[in-house]
């Protein structure tokens, strides 16, 4: 008879390991992309090249947070709410920053993303304050 719990655990562990390797490759590719974009700051307009590098660095931070989340999951067998809110906060902050640099957002979008950041910040504080690890 198959032990379904052990089988499920092995499959999820395998999937998480594959995702970690993919994220590691993405981190390396992202770093290479940033290094290759450095000459564009000098060649292109300073603003255009700077926008590319800022966007790529912020995207790399998001990938790093995903990597950290999956690494924690592989150790603890659970996903922490704080890790997910950290990733979501970084994604929202990246969008605000990219939108401000490209001047493509209206005030409604900036306001909506700011409200989202406020809500996520409150969730993050509550998750740390009422963590199950402290209880």
UniProtKB/TrEMBL annotation:
It is a multi-pass membrane protein. It comes from the Archaea. The chain crosses the membrane at residues 15-36, 48-67, 109-127. The keyword Membrane applies. Its main location: membrane. GO terms for cellular component: plasma membrane. Pfam families: PsiE. Keywords: Cell membrane, Membrane, Transmembrane, Transmembrane helix. InterPro entries: P_starv_induced_PsiE-like. It is found in: Cell membrane. This is Phosphate-starvation-inducible E.
């Amino acid at each position: 008879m198959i032990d379904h719990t052990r089988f499920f655990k092995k499959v999820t562990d395998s999937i998480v390991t594959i995702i970690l390797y993919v994220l590691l490759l993405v981190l390396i590719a992202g770093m290479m992309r940033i290094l290759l974009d450095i000459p564009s700051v000098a060649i292109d307009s300073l603003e255009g090249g700077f926008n590319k590098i800022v966007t790529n660095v912020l995207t790399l931070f998001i990938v790093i947070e995903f990597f950290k989340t999956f690494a924690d999951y592989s150790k603890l067998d659970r996903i922490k709410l704080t890790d997910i809110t950290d990733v979501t906060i970084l994604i929202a902050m990246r969008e605000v920053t990219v939108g401000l640099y490209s001047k493509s957002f209206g005030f409604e979008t900036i306001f909506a993303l700011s409200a989202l950041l406020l809500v996520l910040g409150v969730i993050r504080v509550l998750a740390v304050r009422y963590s199950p690890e402290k209880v």
